[in-house]
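QA checklist item 7 of 12: single-chain prediction sanity check.
[x] sequence parsed
[x] length recorded as 157
[x] structure emitted
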Amino acid sequence: MIEALKQKLTDEAEKLRFELNVTLPNEIRKAVELGDLRENSEYKAALERQQFVQARLGQLTQRLSKLSSIDESQIATDAVGLGSRVVVEDEASKSRENYHMIFGDAEDFDDGQVTMSSPIGRALLGKKVGETAMLRLPDRTRRLRIVELTTIHEGED
């Protein structure tokens, strides 16, 4: 899971570096050749895109640094943690829900993914099969019993 995410972020960073170092300088050069830069929308658009790409590259670099510092051996093998897939049963309604624990700064979420820093993520973190997590909501408290757990160590992505 962590290696796949690193690869995805590295690929995005490489594309952005190419855009920053090759594509955008060409666009800026062409816009400068058009003349008056004060009213040149192509020039302004290229500069704005350049700022965006630089900011996004900074975010990706920071995120890759965080990923590199994660030691998978420190993630519990028998409790909910990063990368875990959890099936919980609501004790009141007896309905089952599936969750996949992901990073707190994830960009895209798939159905069932929750960040470890979200209220549900914090409630589930560290719980083992058979234990009950208390999820405090504004109007009520949900009791979620852990019925199945697959950790990152078991090969799930």
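[x] summary fact logged: The mean pLDDT is 85.
[ ] second reviewer sign-off
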